């Protein structure tokens, strides 16, 4: 990471790395790898998290929000528990559930903590993906977790759970996406909001070289050009964000090692789209760059 951080922030990161080096959940630490042409995206997220702020990553689908969250986990050396939001998300999926266990030959009721309570009690990170996909009535249970109190009254046990000082929350949001709802202002106000732009140019080249098995530099350059053209179409409203997803682009690059590029793009990008007009638009762009 070629970012000069304030000494106090760097010390905070090193302290956490030492603290969690031998944590039983160390396997949950992210692998890192987030790259961007806008270095302050990462810098600002690091500072906010080190200061104990909740971080909301806002950006188009496939821009690298999850990879940024994993990179923060990696840089702090801190395990990260995850919640994938949907309309079916409920309190049990977030907090945990009761179950019957056998102890010394007798059935006893035990509470199995979920990702929120595990992250709080262990001082880990909590990643809430696509937070605006959850039903609005589901999230208020986290209000006390996300403000200065960092506490939660567990509705299943009546216990008041207090988070450890290193506990942190990272959430991701895709605005205007199908199935999403606007975040409640009281909830959004509990976060530091960081825009995560599309990765482009040399930064995208670095990502493709690091995360794809494609090693042909000439082909990689053309895939970077394809991405730039797709982003222009997304920004003008001609195609959906799915078409410009970095994940989909990496899939196409991987396939291009063994398939002709146009067929790789068909499998990795085009067929993920639903609209025939969008499919045709992507094909037309690809055909101008690949023979």
TrEMBL record:
Domain AAA+ ATPase: from-to ranges: 51-197
Pfam families hit by this protein: AAA_5
Identification of the protein by name: ATPase associated with various cellular activities family protein
Lineage: Bacteria, Bacillati, Bacillota, Bacilli, Bacillales
Family per record: Belongs to the CbbQ/NirQ/NorQ/GpvN family.
InterPro entries reported in the protein's UniProt record: AAA+_ATPase, ATPase_dyneun-rel_AAA, CbbQ/NirQ/NorQ/GpvN, ClpA/B, P-loop_NTPase
SUPFAM superfamilies for the chain: P-loop containing nucleoside triphosphate hydrolases
A molecular function GO annotation: ATP binding
